[in-house]
Amino acid sequence: MALKPSLRDVVSQLQVEGVLAGDAQALAGTALASRQDVTTGTPWFVRILTGFGAWVASLFLIAFIALVVTASEEVGAIILGLLLTGGAVVVRRMGNNVFLTQLALSTGLAGQALFVGGMGSLTDSGEAAAAATLGLGLVLLFVYPDTIQRFLSALSASLALLILLRLTVPGVLVDVALVGLTVLAHLLFLQQGRLQAGRWGEVVTPTAFGLVTVLFSVLLMRTWFQDFYGSLFREGAVELPPGVLTLGLAVVTLYSAWRVLEETGVDTGGTAGVTAFATLVLLAVLTFRTPGVIAAAGVLLLGFHRRNVVLLGMAVAFILNFGVSYYYDLELSLLAKSLALLGSGLVMLGLRLFILRRFPAVEEVR
């Protein structure tokens, strides 16, 4: 999930800067060979078996510590959870092999669940459990040196924040916070290269993916499980209308499009910039009752900009999902819906033809 430019891009840049004067193909072959030596050192099935053994070992460790703790059930769960989580951090920092990595991850996840569950049972409060999840997630995000755990920490902390807001503040502010998390995710991806060169560079990408996952999860719940989503509010709370949420997400997407055009050297006030902005605005207007469409379009934009296959896959999957929801929410007959789909398809094909003719792609020189 990290920002990794291709080897060809790196070698080409070095040649342009005059740093590299040798044979680029020979250097590329040497680098690829050394990478293969590193990645193929341990067979894949050995790594899988080692990781499975670490998860089994962690289960026995959890069972043993659970028998040792003799305090009350809630307090014991909290103590046990903190011990397991702290031990996982220490073990993960001891080494980077498969067994230690998976052992620490599985043990840490169990410890986090015990701690949050114990806090919720002890206080009999959903607010306390959400606050505990938020605090623990933020701490582990910075102290646990593992990409998967950092992704899960960002994911759990963001969800806990939204749940805590749902239980304590008016429901409208929850959607405002969701837009704020979306802004943070876009900024992290837009500034990914610069931020990864800083002190907390390893935190940037997992956090950004965690925020995007939260965004899609909340919008998916709001779109397909409206009754359950509404039950999460306090009695009498009112959520933000879909059109207003779509407007907020559209503003974020337009800002990202403006930044991407600037980075690629395209005149934002020219024909290309106006075409891009007009297309996004039109998409937001047509799908104002389904905010997930413009949100997924924004993530798709970031995926193309960062050349990230995982981000592109997430965006495509969710834009299709939200597109289906938009189709079924249309208060039209089946014939009218079919004509709408046909018309939108023709518009998209015409727009593609216009872009290809008006802005021909420069042929890549190999």
3D architecture notes:
The protein is mainly alpha-helical and about 375 residues long. The protein has 16 helices and no strands. It has helices at about 5-15, 25-40, 45-70, 75-95, 100-125, 125-145, 145-170, 170-190, 190-195, 200-225, 225-230, 240-265, 270-285, 290-305, 310-330, 335-360. α8 packs across α10 (about 200-225), α8 (about 170-190) runs parallel beside α12 and α12 (about 240-265) packs antiparallel against α13 (about 270-285). The two termini are about 25 Å apart. Mean pLDDT is about 75; it is low at about 20-40.
Uncertain runs are 20-40
Largest sheet: none
The pLDDT mean sits at: 77
Shape: globular
Strand tally is 0
What is the distance, rounded to the nearest whole angstrom, between the alpha carbons of the first and last residues?
Answer: 27 Å
Helical segment tally? 16
Defining traits:
mainly alpha; 16 helices; 81% helix; globular
Brief description of this entry?
The protein has 16 helices and no strands. Helix 7 (about 145-170) packs across helix 10 and helix 14 packs antiparallel against helix 15. The chain is globular and about 70 Å long.
